[in-house]
Design a protein that fits this description.
Four copies of one chain form a homotetramer. By secondary structure, the first copy, chain A, is mostly helical. Chain A folds into two domains: 12-60, Homeodomain-like (Arc Repressor Mutant, subunit A), CATH 1.10.10.60; 64-205, Orthogonal Bundle (Tetracycline Repressor, domain 2), CATH 1.10.357. Helix content of chain A is 68%, strand content 0%. Chain A has nine helices and no strands. Chain A has helices at residues 13-35, 42-48, 53-59, 63-86, 92-109, 113-123, 125-148, 157-177, 189-201. The radius of gyration of chain A is 22 Å and the shape is elongated. Chains in contact: A-B, C-D. The interface between C and D is large, with 55 and 54 residues. The structure holds a DNA duplex.
Chain lengths: 219, 219, 219, 219
DNA sequence: AATGAATGAGGATTCATTCAT
DNA sequence: TATGAATGAATCCTCATTCAT
């Protein structure tokens, strides 16, 4: 897509400005991904962006401000990626599997995201809470739809909330556990299987299916 | 239990020394619990313990050293608490419920533990890994026993591992989500219920129980 | 010599930067000269330079770094001064006298140099060794030339080395001994005389000139 | 030599006390010899003496106090050693050679002395000055005697002083230069030779002996 | 007299932020 | 708008010295 240019073909002031801002943002994401928020100094960020320290403050009011922006922007990308990947699915379980996998494929593409996400809880708590609300809301709608369609058990909204937390937590932790020292996630296929198995059947051995779900037996 | 005293009834040097060390440890736990590792300065810790800054270094070689000790000590307490609470349980599900509840009752008793646990991943990674290994190993033995007893589905050890991660993650996240701004955990009963429901039956609506577990229907 | 200026007549950033660095260097030299390396704190140095503490670290990576720079820079000045003063001399003894005197006149001009030089042995050992090597090498060439010209006794190179150490030591110690509490060197003329006398004739009374140099008597 | 004991054969309180003091002194000497004054902390000294930190202050009022005592005590030992070694000598030159060599043999026996001596200039200046005065005074008497005996040139007392400084400096520097990284002095024989040669004849080549000592030539 | 814990002043260093150019 | 030097608050840590036991 062609960019707007001035008559002489040079970039607009606005464009140039946006580029610098993006460069800072990208640099910050990488630096936080590599060193963590604590060691993401302005010096490091501006150096990576090939800019002077002072320039930073032309675009962000403070160090915290850019930290607070990291997760919202990247989180939106993550959601978009997941939606796109899980779009074609029909059944609840299919969709769940696809979006589960999509989360991990996103991490492969953007390895620094996981650290940003994780540490944000500590260093950008507001942003983290917001991100989390976004995820939860989206998930809630999905589960409500599945419930309405009779695809999943008839849980109250009050139960749906902790359930979502559990599923989201699961993804995050698995990612963390299966990330090697180089920051590359390598999820074993068993993880996917057992995740789906838990969702479908729970853990209890068939022979011991509790009485209170006996109802299943008689259609 | 009566403490050893000197003939004059005063405390031993050793005792006094232990008390001071404990005071520092306790102060550090509280300060980290309240402000997080980043803002747990030596000044804050020693002030809370009513000691001079220099005294700190009579007991710990560095700030990091006490940080590294926090989780192991408190984590052991947590495990002890859970074991004690879940001791009486018979079935897998019972035990799981009791230890699940025990985790949260421990947090009620020791509110600063959660933050210490969470941030340790970043600020005391070695300690965190070790703590995690402890938890995982303990959990693994438990699940293997249940599997041997036919109480849970016949999952491979390779599947047990991610499963454990999921369950552990679940507890941690729920705690985080249901902790209010004062650091008090308030887990809704629905969370317990849905957790156990997930373990027992999974999520899928009875009418849609996948074919591969049809076996359940015919005793 | 006119300094480069910007169009507006103000100093360049680079110039300003050099000035600040020089100010720090000069301040450090003075402070070390007055208080010694041990008590040459960053606080003292920056205060003397009328700069904030932090500014120091924009120019030097550490306290040790500036310490290591002191002697090389000032030592080079010393050598230059001596060379310039002793330039015109013809004979060995003349040159020796001039450079001997030049060493002390340099100390008059730069009173803090002596302490910097002396303590450097302890606090900037690398720099001190290097300085010493420079001096020694320069001296060695000088003596070799004099030897080749038959101006001094025909000593082996292995003898020249300790000899140089002796001469260098002599200057340093004399300076130390004849420095008063205000740091001002006041070398008595006798010191010069006896130094030259030692070089020319040694100490032994004429009547007792050892046999092995009897050769002198008969041309 | 039998030590005074109490009736029961135990050591006197005074004796015990002296032993502890000596242990501290010896420890301090070693520590300063190894690490230098700067890093000779009370902790290090008392640890080496197998005593508690506090014990130090029962014997010395301050860290500086023991520093100030080091050189006087060891310096006296050095002088005693030199006197003993040079005792038998007859001529000036013989005595000079023996005491020159004795200085270095003392360093072989007490390797930490050199560092103590050198750094004392900075860290125990008073003691250093005193030590220096002792040396100088002793040397002066020696030279005056030699002068009276007509063994050395007829120098004024005002000339003897700087001369002594030169000779003392020479020894110190040579020791420094020929000490290896393990603190062992290894003086090459050339150093002795050239030292004595300088004393006997000076440096000037025989053919160029200055006119003002021509007197030598004609008996 | 011996002990060793407690003290707190002091020092090097880091780094977010400001600001003149 | 970009720059990068200047700032100074904040922090960890060391260590001589004190003092109660």
């Amino acid at each position: 897509m062609a960019m707007a240019r001035t008559a002489t073909g040079k970039k607009t002031r606005v464009q140039r400005s946006e580029e610098v801002r993006d460069a800072l943002f990208q640099a910050a994401a990488e630096v936080v991904g590599e060193y963590g928020y604590v060691d993401a100094s302005i010096t490091r960020i501006t150096q990576r962006a090939n800019l002077a320290q002072g320039t930073f403050y032309n675009y962000f009011a403070s160090r915290q401000e850019i930290f607070d922006e990291l997760l919202p922007v990247l989180g939106a990308k993550m959601l978009a990626h997941i939606r796109q990947q899980a779009g074609g699915a029909r059944t609840f379980l299919e969709k769940e599997e696809l979006s589960f996998r999509a989360f991990f494929s996103f991490l492969k593409r953007m390895p620094y995201f996981l650290r940003i996400l994780n540490e944000a809880e500590i260093f950008a708590p507001k942003a983290h809470r917001q991100h989390f609300r976004n995820i939860t809301a989206s998930y809630l709608r999905f589960l409500q739809k599945a419930r309405a369609a009779g695809e999943i058990a008839d849980l109250s909204d009050d139960s749906l909330e902790p359930l979502i937390y559990m599923l989201v937590a699961t993804r995050g932790y698995l990612a963390l556990r299966y990330t090697n020292e180089n920051g590359v996630v390598n999820l074993p296929e068993e993880a996917v299987t057992v995740y789906l198995q838990l969702l479908s059947n729970g853990l209890i051995a068939p022979s011991l299916v509790p009485i209170n779900i006996e109802g299943r037996k008689e259609p």
